[in-house]
Design goal:
The chain has 201 residues and is an alpha+beta fold. It has 3 helices and 12 strands, in the order αββββββαβββββαβ. About 22% of the residues have low confidence.
């Protein structure tokens, strides 16, 4: 009986020793640094500066040819498979939605719902509809712009989107933030926030 008690005490002491060492190891470990995803080629990931307008950690895409830039979430990646027609850059969740595409077209007529339908159709989409009024807005850099919502079909997918559009030097620069509602619900506040970081210099 004494041997059983002795063995029980030894086991308890060993367990206490192991638990004590484990707790000490946990307390001494520093939290790992958060690793930011690498930026697309030619881009640098930039953490939000104090007082920045965006609610998300952002990267900035800058286009020197047409002199504009836009911010988008740091974990989004380049989406080259989306580039066609007048879409010159696109970023999004790897392989899926949501995302942002940037297009530049000639501003050869006023921006109307018909113009938007024709432009989106020329980019390979079908069933294009403008689903809101075209409303005047101001981008975060103070530039006057037009904002609107639209829906369209891209391949087999029904897309919903929010866009801002600016005319500069005879060109119409447009930022369209899009999603497939069934997979990643349309978030107008978030999409509008991204679209309004479009900056034209």
């Amino acid at each position: 009986m004494r041997d059983k008690k002795y063995n029980f005490v030894k086991v308890c002491l060993a367990l206490l020793l192991v638990v004590g060492l484990a707790l000490g190891a946990c307390k001494s470990q520093e939290p790992a640094e958060t690793q930011q995803p690498s930026a697309p080629s030619g881009q640098q990931a930039e953490p939000l500066a104090e007082g920045a307008a965006t609610s998300f950690e952002a990267k900035t895409y800058t286009n020197d040819e047409y002199e504009f830039s836009i911010k988008y979430p740091v974990d989004w990646v380049e989406r080259p498979e989306i580039l066609q027609s007048t879409i010159i850059a696109a970023f999004g969740v790897p392989g899926f939605v949501p995302g942002v595409s940037l297009s530049v077209r000639d501003a050869d007529e006023p921006l109307t719902a018909d113009w938007i339908v024709a432009a989106n159709t020329a980019e390979g989409n079908t069933n294009v509809e403008v689903t809101s009024d075209l409303a005047e807005t101001t981008l975060s850099d103070g530039t006057p712009a037009i904002q609107y919502k639209s829906s369209f079909k891209s391949g087999a997918y029904e897309i919903v989107s929010f866009a801002t559009s600016v005319d500069k030097d005879g060109k119409r620069i447009r930022a369209t933030i899009w999603t497939i509602d069934a997979f990643s619900p349309y978030d107008e506040a978030f999409f509008s926030e991204i679209a309004h970081t479009l900056s034209v210099r």
